Every structure is written in C-alpha cells, then in structure tokens.
Fold this sequence. Notes:
Oligomer: heterodimer
CATH architecture of chain A: 3-Layer(aba) Sandwich
Number of domains of chain A: 1
Strand order of the largest sheet of chain A: 3-2-4-5-1-6-9-8-7
Number of domains of chain B: 2
Shape of chain B: globular
Strand order of the largest sheet of chain B: 5-4-3-6-7
Shape of chain A: globular
CATH class of chain A: Alpha Beta
CATH class of the largest domain in chain B: Mainly Beta
Strand content of chain A: 5-15%
Structural class of chain A: alpha/beta
Radius of gyration of chain A: 20 Å
Distance between the termini of chain A: 26 Å
Radius of gyration of chain B: 16 Å
Number of helices of chain A: 13
CATH superfamily of chain A: Thiolase/Chalcone synthase
Amino acid sequence: MSTFDLKDRTAISGVGDTEYGRPLNRSAIDLAAEAFGNACDDAGISTRDVDGLIMSVGSPLGVDCDSLAQMLGLDLRMYSQTWTHGRFTATCIQQAAMYVAAGFADTVACMAALGSSGVQAGLNPRPFNTDPFAAAAARDEAAREGGGGHGQDPVYGIDTTDVGAALVARVYFDRYGATSEQLAAVSIATRRHAAMNSGAMNREPLSLDDYMQSPLLATPLREPDYSLVAEGAACVIVTSTERARDMRKTPVLISGMQPLPVGREEFIWTYPGFGVAQQERRAYGEKLQPVYKMAGVDHSAIDALFTYDVYSIITWMALERWGFCKPGEAADFTQGGRIEIDGELPINSHGGLLSEAHMFGWNAQVEIIRQMRGECGERQLENTEMMQWANAYGDSLIYRR
Amino acid sequence: MSEPYTKMLPGISNLNRPYWEGLRRHVLTLPECDDCGLIWYAPSPWCPKCHSRNFKWIELTGKGHVNAWSELKGTHATLLGAPTDGLPDNAVEITLEEGPRLISNLVGVEPGEIRTGMPVTVVYDDVAEDLTLARFKPA
C-alpha cells in the first residue's frame, strides 16, 4: 500500500495554546480547555464541531479522555491517546490525518496539556507536595521495566533523560573534535528567537561567554543546553484540506509524514549506527528519508526546521539524521547564525524547548502554522512555503501552504 | 548496623533473575544465543538478533572499555530543585569485551580522569545484603 494518497489531503485548520510556565498552579483540564477553545476559535468553528480527539496525556498523571470529554461536554466519534513525549507529537497528528482521510472523524483536535494542580496524590507513595513534579515524572519513567528509553538506569543513580544525551554529546565531541563553544550556538540561537516571543519562558540574551560560564550539569552539557520544563497546553485542529479551505484561516497542508521508528538500532537521542546504547557503529547517511519522497521534495526545499531540542545536542543529531548535513558536520553547520531566523536554515523560531517551553514540541506545531500564515510579528520568517518537524529519533511531518 | 539501602532497586523478574543472582555471586552473566552467538543485554525472552529461543547464560570476563561518559555535577532533576545528594559522581556506558553495553558508574577515578576508550574491569559492589551492583574501575 502506498502512503502517497495522504499527501496534502489533510490540513491544520486551527491552533491554540496557553501561557507556559512552571508552576502555573492551574489544572491540566483548565489548560487543555483553554488551548482547545483557542484552537477552535482560530479555525472559526464551535467546540461542538470537534468529533475526534487525540491527547498526549501529561505525565506522570495526566488528563484522561473520559474526564476531559465529560467535563467539556464533548461528543466524540474518535479518541486516541499517547503519553506526553516528544516522540509522540507527530504520531498524534499523523493519526489524526489518517482518521480524517479515512472518514472516521471530520475535525480532530490533537493536544497536550500539563498542569501540576488537580492531580490527586492519595494513591501515590511519593510525596507530590514536596517532590519536584517533573523530577518525579522522570523517575517514574525510569522505573519502568527495561528503563525509560533514554539510557537511564536508576539502579546506578541515573534516573533522568539528560544523561543519555550527555553520553551522546561526549561521543560526538570525542569522535568529531566538536566543542562546547560550538554547541553553544544552538542555545544562543533559540534564546535570540525567544527574546522576540513574549510567551517564551527564558528571554534573557545568551552570549558565548554567558554560556561558557554557566554551570556544568551532566558534562559536557551546561545549563543552557537543557530545555525548560513547563506546564501549559497546545492544540492543533486537523481536518480535510477541502474543509480547511472553507474555514477562517489559510490552511497549512500536511504534505509529508514519517512515523516513529523503533528497534535495537534506535536510541532516542541519536540516529542508527552512532554506536551508543546497543547500536552498532557504522556509516549513516546519503539515503533520502521517505518523508521527502512523500512530499515530493528534498531537504533543500525546507524553509525552516523545527525539532525537539530538549537538549541542544539533539538539534545536531536531527540535522545529521535528516541530511541537512553529513555526520560530524552539524557542529560547523550551526555556526555563524545559519540556524537563526535570518539564517539559511532557521531552526525553532519560537525559541524551542530550550528557550520557549518544553511543551513536547506541540508548541513547535503551533509556531509552524503561525509562521506559515505570517502571524509571528518580530520573529516572522521571510520564506514560509514549506516547513518540517523532524527529530533526532526519526519521525517527521512536512507542512506546506 | 549499616544504614538501610534506600536507592532504587532493580526490578527483578523471571527474565533477569540469573543476571542479578550472578552479580550476588560476583559473576557477570548474560545470555548467549546458541544459534547466532550473540551475547546480549538486557536479558530478554529470545535473541534480539536472530529471534532464536535457544540460549544459555554464560560468564563474562567483566572487562571492557568506556564507550561514553558524563560527570554528573547535576541533572535535569536537580535543575528543577531535586536534591543532589545521592547523585553518583559519573555515568558511564561500558562496552563489554563480549559486545553488549551497560550503563554504570566508574569508581576509583578522580574528577577529570575519565577518558573515552579507557579499559575497565568490573567491581562487584555489595550495596545491600541482597543486592550487588556491577560498577567498573580502570583496568
């Protein structure tokens, strides 16, 4: 079966989000309702018009479909959920596109919502009131049978997702002679973008000196290499392209998609063959990824790249995975402003997870749509015909106007 | 009387019990496929390379090298306000001589001494009466 039938058949017809911060002291259901309502307003539809919902359920204890649908009085033909994870953001939107194209739903809201208020603590042995919420979530994930999938091993005191990224960074630095000074360019770019985004959590300018003087955490990573754990919600509405054309805003078409791969050669923070976790070490590259074939373009057609920059090093791995540069070249590629909004390949114009908020990449989807409609004010990109969400871990969406 | 062990315990199951029982005896053991010869981690119901269900537990040399490392001055959790006490000095990914990689900690090194490729050997760390961890030290 071919996937080509799905090219351009569905579109994002509305987006909505909330404030981002930590802690917001707001209920996740309240945040979900706000983002959802905003997305419906943006599309020019009633909240009652939505007949499908795909949730990235917040961890550790997120909003379940039943609660949300019942409390908001929704009447849905189609529901699906993943848990909040950058790896499942494209998955949710891809599912929505397929359900819509197959006729199972006409108007599917896809969203993530995270809020630390309203979680009922009684059944959990962990003291929610004293333990930092997100740190506790990380430990929950690490405690699963087989670990959390980010290279954690809590038995050895490694229960957070950053350490696996630090190990990848170390291998990359040693193998290619890359430096912290070079890695700084990723965080400096996103911080510059965030300064032009009133909703971003960290809008402080970041210089190379600031970066080099910032605290080391899991070496070689420093504080600015870490994303900003956040609460908030973001929502996108998927409809057929045909319906989207009759709605309020310019539709943004889902032109290409590539699902999330998994296996022994996959490790969340890098691409196959890199030689960490249980991966072999072998050459990687040259092959044009299927998402480009589906969209009928190659990566040179991409006006801006959006990626899950939970740690700065992961942006390098995404660039190499998707063929924007060859293995070992991302350190050089990202220098000289190339990935800034006035550069050759702008990356994460909203500030990304590093500087806007860690909303699992849902905020990136919202930004892409707003950029393609020309709604981004000071940080508006010049060329916005085609944009890509593409990640180090191998999933992607290509959007076009 | 020593302090009770309060850190996270391994989830011991029918799949990995031989591994943890081996460590208790100060032996590093992993499954080896009878059909394709793969020695693998983590223990699983069949060979992840050829899917053969025929495998046996073998004793490893406990030797390997540092494939990747990080000194832990803090983590994402400590950045969010979690306490730093209990954080190990380092995280290392060891490539065992036989091929599989393990996440562990390197002992017997000063800050700044860890190097990629450094040869290491296993140290059986009896952290509790019924729990031994496989840590590593420079060979």
